[in-house]
Specification:
By secondary structure, the protein is of the alpha/beta class. The protein has 8 helices and 14 strands. It has a single domain, classed as TIM Barrel, CATH 3.20.20.150. The chain has an 8-stranded parallel beta sheet with strand order 3-2-1-14-11-10-9-4. It has a two-stranded antiparallel ribbon with strand order 5-8. A two-stranded antiparallel sheet has the order 6-7. Strand 10, helix 6 and strand 11 form a beta-alpha-beta unit. The radius of gyration is 18 Å and the shape is globular. 46% of the residues are buried.
């Protein structure tokens, strides 16, 4: 399936599946419509099918929508993924009947070790863009649902082009959809020494954005350097909301707005859901979806 054929879902959550923090089932069953969400974004490793089944099998059997974040994929590595990772990830996506999948353009695994926040983002140049595009095509072929490429978190940048130009180049070459993580983009601007107003937005293919991620930002200071990192336990940063409010009208193929809320307090999640519902209502997004 081409990304343009994906049906819209609306507002979703990425949350701890156990429901410890936040208690996402509280919102799923809320009497207040603006506290509900339309899908869950499940980030899981290739070998966690049993864990996922334990926590959400009732929703799967009821036909609740899911998207999947296959965290063991390495979109910047030209080599194919090991068979065990491919088989486990495909089984997870099939079990969830995932509407789409998406992973950041980075090196997340090294010799079997998941690197987490120590990932290596893509080198932002033409050679790397061609390699990542080829890998995105491969991942789209092996996954049972459309695979989308996400702009990665960046603490440092080796580049000859802006991150948005890189993602534009890759998505055009691979003809794939995109996940636009707004916090990652803002963090990249600081990491590369740019202001938030210095983005080549007019060259970015917003029409390829299928999913948007919103989360908090954690500020780090090291000597004269200040950086911002995506943090799912913090309240969604006002700069992320502002960027989305100013640009969501460009996203003509937007299918999901994911609030990344793992380990976030319930009261913040409630505020974020209300604001997201208000935003999509005012901007007339997802008009053919019952929110």
């Amino acid at each position: 399936m081409h990304f343009s054929e994906i049906k819209p879902l609306g507002i979703g959550l990425a949350a701890d599946l156990g429901g410890n923090k936040p208690d996402w089932r509280q919102f799923l069953n809320s009497d207040e419509p603006e506290l509900r969400f339309a899908y869950l974004n499940v980030a899981a490793t290739y070998d966690q099918l049993g864990k996922v089944q334990y926590h959400i099998d009732d929703l799967v059997q009821a036909g609740f929508p899911f998207v999947v974040h296959p965290i063991n994929f390495n979109p910047v590595d030209p080599a194919d993924e090991p068979d065990t990772i491919v088989e486990g990830t495909v089984a997870l996506a099939r079990y969830l009947r995932a509407r789409w999948s998406g992973q950041d353009a980075g090196l997340w695994m090294w010799q079997g070790q998941y690197m987490g926040e120590f990932l290596m983002p893509a080198v932002l140049d033409e050679e790397s863009a061609c390699e990542v595009a080829a890998k995105a095509c491969f991942l789209n072929c092996i996954m049972p649902c459309p695979f989308l490429l996400e702009n990665p978190p960046v603490g440092f940048s080796i580049e000859s082009m802006h991150m948005l130009d890189f993602m534009a180049r890759v998505s055009s070459e691979a003809d794939c959809g995109l996940v636009l993580d707004v916090g990652h983009l803002i963090g990249y601007q600081f990491a590369s020494g740019r202001s938030l107003h210095d983005m080549p937005l007019d060259r970015f293919p917003f029409e390829r954005v299928v999913e948007v991620h919103l989360a908090g930002l954690m500020r780090r200071v090291s000597g004269p350097y200040t950086s911002f990192y995506d943090h799912h336990g913090h309240p969604i940063d006002s700069r992320c909301w502002t960027f989305l409010e100013e640009n969501i009208h460009r996203m003509t193929n937007l299918r999901g707005l994911t609030l990344e809320q793992e380990s976030c307090e319930n009261r913040f999640v409630a505020d974020h859901l209300r604001r997201a519902h208000r935003l999509v209502r005012e901007q007339r997004v997802f008009t053919d979806v019952t929110l």
